[in-house]
């Protein structure tokens, strides 16, 4: 190494060191300054909470329906004999086959159960199931967003019906011989289809010439059933009624009224589902106040299957204000033995109720 | 082998101009070193003078130079080479210079910290997650404002436009009309307007709403949940620690980005 280079290295080293030293000092001082600034910023913020609390709100600020959440034991006509979990998220489809096999549909697909509630086949499906109906042949008709599928007993897809509205929300399916009726909550009509899924007509669309005001369906709860008298029964939840239609779509008769009292349908839009006994009487389900009630064939209240206090999980969520307003329904189906199966979406439980 | 000898063929092929560059840099470094030496010598002289002043006996007068002419042993510091001395001692001028630099750095850091602290606070807003809200009424009682900044808002896209709205009517109304005795809201903050049979539109008067959540509970329990509570930022003063958030039993209050200050429900939600 030359002397020049050695001199350069020797003199550059202290310069670099002092530079690094100065930089470290500068960084430290700037950091200290930053910390001080942050502290000042925090201290000079606006109010830091805890003013005097205003007076407690009076009763007029409390939403109180507790008096409607208790049921009169004298009105109970049924008792629970067993219950079991559906094992599904957002379970909202319930149907019973002629052999008493129970099927429940929800977000994960379809689960089958025996008449005693023993778990059977699980059919996974990629889309949530909104409705199920059994054909006499043992096939299942499954309603999902935008489509109706036909499945065999093992869950294999036999057909998917096309040509239906893209936004179809099939919340209920009823069968009358070869005819299929699909309650479409999105379009507020009942679709009339043939056995192959071909659209034959629409029931319930607003038509002043036929004295039809149209269905009022504020939320995704819209139920259709076939009654033994040969007429369709369709819930009109916004009007708190169950309406009877011919298979050609003429309105014949309607019954029901809005009320929080036990004989009426509570809230803005009930009943959310119902089923018809072989004698033409009804079992109805309500949301908000979870009530399962009995009406005779002319719509006269005859008693309770289960009152609100039979659904503690539902009531707890409702009172806490944490229920999913669009997915907290109660559904009923009548099995061949005359028992009433009740599905509560909040707990996902199925209760088997037997007449006392 | 000399350390300056090229170590690779690539370096041997370096153009002449490149070979000359280190020499120029060395010359520049030498000049800088000489300048440093001169400064150090000057500093050493100043230090020597200061030391002379310090050594002067109390009560003595006269120019410090006079003392240096006396045959006294030189100060130890003065006997050091100038460059070595400068490492141990610091001149007044340098002290002042360094002090000024430090102070300016400190000030700069403080300003940056202050601004970043302010910005981080200004970048968020308090908001209620409607899916966690349990309508307990604390929003009405625990806000620092006289009338709470929390108001009911309406997602019109989710609303069913029901004739019997459970957010508007008492559970058992006498009639389905706008009579005060039928209305659920204690302050009459909900307006009901006929659209077409059987549909009605409901809107919130924010001046009257106190954020108690009574209507929200009615709507959520029986209806679609289109009524819900939100902190309205045209009223909220964005406290450091929101007193409602502290009191909220459901931990439904969150700090959300300023760029998305509302946690809305439905597609067509708006605070009307």
Key features?
heterodimer; A: 356 residues; mainly beta; Neuraminidase; four-stranded antiparallel β-sheet; 2 helices; 14% helix; elongated; B: 272 residues; alpha+beta; three-stranded antiparallel β-sheet; two-stranded antiparallel ribbon; rod-shaped
Terminal CA distance of chain A: 110 Å
CATH architecture field of chain A: 6 Propeller
Whole-number mean pLDDT of chain B: 76
What is the top-level CATH class of chain A? Mainly Beta
What is the global morphology of chain A? Answer: elongated
Q: Give, in order, the helices and strands of chain B.
A: HHHHHHEHEEEHEHEE
The overall average pLDDT of chain A, rounded, is: 91
> Would you count the extended β strands of chain B for me?
7
Could you give the order of the helices and strands of chain A?
A: HEEEEEEEEEEEEEEEEEEEEEHEEE
Largest sheet of chain B: 3 strands, antiparallel
Query: What count of helical segments of chain B does DSSP give?
Result: 9
Instruction: State the low-pLDDT regions of chain B, or none.
Output: 1-21, 51-80, 268-272
Structural class of chain A: mainly beta
Oligomer designation: heterodimer
CATH superfamily heading of chain A: TolB, C-terminal domain
Low-pLDDT regions of chain A? none
CATH fold assignment of chain A: Neuraminidase
> How helical, in percent, are the residues of chain B?
40-55%
Strand line-up across the major sheet of chain A: 1-24-23-22
């Amino acid at each position: 190494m030359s002397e020049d280079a050695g001199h350069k290295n020797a003199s550059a080293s202290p310069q670099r060191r002092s530079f690094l030293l100065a930089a470290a000092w500068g960084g430290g001082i700037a950091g200290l300054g930053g910390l001080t600034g942050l502290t000042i910023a925090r201290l000079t913020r606006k109010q830091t909470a805890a003013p005097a609390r205003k007076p407690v709100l009076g009763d007029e600020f409390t939403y109180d329906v507790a008096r409607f959440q208790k049921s009169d034991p004298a009105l109970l006509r049924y008792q629970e004999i067993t219950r079991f979990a559906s094992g599904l998220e957002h379970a909202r489809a319930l149907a019973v086959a002629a052999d008493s096999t129970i099927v429940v549909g929800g977000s994960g697909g379809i689960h089958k159960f025996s008449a005693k509630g023993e778990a059977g086949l699980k059919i996974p499906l990629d889309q949530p199931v909104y409705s199920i109906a059994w054909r006499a042949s043992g096939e299942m008709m499954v309603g999902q967003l935008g489509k109706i599928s036909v499945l065999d007993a093992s869950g294999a897809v036999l057909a998917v019906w096309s040509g239906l509205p893209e936004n179809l929300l099939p919340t209920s399916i009823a069968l009358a011989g070869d005819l299929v009726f699909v309650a479409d909550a999105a379009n507020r009509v009942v679709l009339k289809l043939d056995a192959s899924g071909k659209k034959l007509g629409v029931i319930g669309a607003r038509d002043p010439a036929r004295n039809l005001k149209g269905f009022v369906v504020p939320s995704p709860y819209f139920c259709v059933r076939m009654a033994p008298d040969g007429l369709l029964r369709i819930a009109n939840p916004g009007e708190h009624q169950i309406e009877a239609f011919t298979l050609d779509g003429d309105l014949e008769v309607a019954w029901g009224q809005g009320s929080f009292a036990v004989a009426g349908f509570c809230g803005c839009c009930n009943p959310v589902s119902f089923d018809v006994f072989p004698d033409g009487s009804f079992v109805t389900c309500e949301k908000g106040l979870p009530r399962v009630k009995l009406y005779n064939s002319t719509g006269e209240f005859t008693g309770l299957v289960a009152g609100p206090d039979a659904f503690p999980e539902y009531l707890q969520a409702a009172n806490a204000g944490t229920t999913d307003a669009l997915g907290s329904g109660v559904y009923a189906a009548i099995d061949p033995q005359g028992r009433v199966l009740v599905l509560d979406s909040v707990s996902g439980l199925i209760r088997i109720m037997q007449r006392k | 082998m000399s350390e300056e000898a090229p170590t690779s063929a690539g370096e041997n092929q370096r153009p002449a101009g490149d070979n000359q560059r280190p020499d120029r840099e060395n010359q520049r470094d030498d000049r800088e070193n000489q300048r440093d030496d001169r400064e150090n010598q000057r500093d050493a002289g100043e230090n020597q003078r200061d030391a002379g002043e310090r050594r002067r006996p109390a009560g003595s007068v006269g120019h410090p130079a006079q003392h240096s002419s006396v045959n006294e042993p030189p100060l130890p510091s003065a006997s050091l080479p100038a460059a070595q001395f400068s490492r141990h001692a610091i001149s007044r001028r340098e002290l002042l210079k360094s002090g000024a630099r430090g102070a300016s750095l400190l000030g700069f850091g403080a300003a940056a910290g202050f601004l970043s602290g302010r910005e981080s606070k200004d970048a968020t807003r308090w908001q209620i997650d409607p899916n966690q809200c349990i309508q307990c009424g604390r929003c009405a009682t625990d806000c620092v404002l006289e009338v709470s900044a929390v108001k009911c808002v309406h997602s019109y896209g989710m609303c069913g436009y029901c004739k019997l709205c459970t957010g508007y009517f008492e559970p058992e109304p006498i009639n389905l009309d706008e009579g005060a005795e039928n209305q659920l809201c204690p302050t009459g903050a909900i307006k009901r307007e006929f659209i077409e049979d059987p549909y009605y539109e409901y809107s919130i008067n924010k001046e009257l709403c106190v954020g108690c959540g009574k209507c929200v509970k009615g709507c959520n329990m029986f209806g679609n949940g289109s009524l819900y509570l939100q902190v309205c930022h045209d009223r909220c003063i964005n406290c450091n620690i929101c007193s409602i958030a502290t009191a909220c039993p459901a931990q439904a209050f969150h700090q959300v980005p300023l760029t998305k200050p509302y946690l809305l429900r439905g597609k067509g939600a708006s605070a009307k």
